[in-house]
């Protein structure tokens, strides 16, 4: 690379979080992402003068800063991108009203003035995640069961992006669901997992059967720290003094 701007430029992402004041948001106790600032400040012009800093989303230009230009700041229409001009400058660009359409690959390009016209760029990806405002819900028929009967329950996740991964546990042991369906609306996913379990004496621990549904939303940026939400129902065992069958009744919590 010619003398001028060196290649030490880096693009970093920082996110400003705020809480949406609503009953639903209080339930999940998770912040809602409303603004994101991208920084592009680790560059060295050396003897050159800055001509412009240009920002792209998925190869489409959406913001340009030209210190000698009139105006210095200019933004372009790109889906999912709304620039806050007051908070944006030669070091950062701040996006407002972040949505699912804001996900993508972002790039900043630093260009020098004549005579070198040197330029360098750096990229960073962003994934917008919508967390469920409510934990999973368990539904099913509330009736008396006997050993050998089939216990039928459904677990439904709250709307999220990406879709939640649902798991069933019986007395702490994971069991496979019978069926699973995924529904999508406006980019948000809801998952329904159906459990059909034939009740056997081995399922009965003491006087109840513990059934738990776990909803897991994994984040590509931090897969080691997914959002976990659980819902539990207990199937209580009722012993009768006569007869070989052990009837049970299902109650949800």
UniProtKB/TrEMBL annotation:
It holds the Pfam family C2-set_2. It comes from the Eukaryota. InterPro entries: CD80_C2-set, Ig-like_dom, Ig-like_dom_sf, Ig-like_fold, Ig_V-set. Residues 35-127, 136-229 form the Ig-like domain. PROSITE patterns: IG_LIKE. Residues 1-29 are annotated as: Disordered. This is Ig-like domain-containing protein. Keywords: Disulfide bond, Membrane, Transmembrane, Transmembrane helix. SUPFAM superfamilies: Immunoglobulin (SSF48726). The lineage of its organism: Eukaryota, Metazoa, Ecdysozoa, Arthropoda, Hexapoda. PANTHER family: BEAT PROTEIN, BEATEN PATH IV, ISOFORM B. The keyword Chaperone does not apply.
């Amino acid at each position: 690379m010619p003398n001028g701007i060196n290649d030490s430029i880096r693009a970093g992402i920082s996110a400003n979080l705020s809480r949406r004041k609503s009953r639903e948001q209080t339930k999940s106790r998770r912040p809602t992402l409303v603004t994101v600032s991208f920084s592009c400040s680790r560059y060295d012009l050396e003897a050159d003068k800055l001509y412009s800093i240009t920002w792209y989303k998925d190869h489409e230009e959406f913001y340009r800063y030209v210190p000698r230009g009139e105006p210095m700041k200019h933004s372009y229409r790109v889906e999912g991108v709304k620039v806050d001009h007051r908070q944006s400058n030669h070091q950062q660009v701040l996006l407002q009203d972040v949505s699912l359409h804001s996900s993508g690959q972002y790039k900043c390009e630093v260009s020098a003035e004549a005579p070198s016209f040197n330029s360098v760029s750096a990229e960073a990806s962003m994934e917008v995640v919508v967390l469920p405002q409510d934990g999973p819900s368990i539904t099913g028929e509330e009736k008396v069961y006997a050993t050998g009967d089939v216990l039928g329950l459904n677990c439904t996740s709250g709307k999220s992006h990406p879709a939640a991964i649902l798991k069933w546990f019986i007395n702490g042991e994971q069991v496979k669901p019978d069926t699973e369906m995924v529904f999508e609306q406006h980019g948000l996913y809801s998952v329904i997992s159906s459990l059909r379990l034939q009740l056997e004496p081995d399922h009965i621990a003491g006087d109840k059967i513990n059934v738990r549904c776990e909803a897991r939303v994994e984040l590509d940026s931090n897969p080691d720290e997914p959002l976990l939400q659980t819902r539990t129902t207990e199937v209580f065992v009722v012993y009768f003094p006569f007869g070989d069958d052990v009837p049970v009744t299902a109650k949800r919590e």
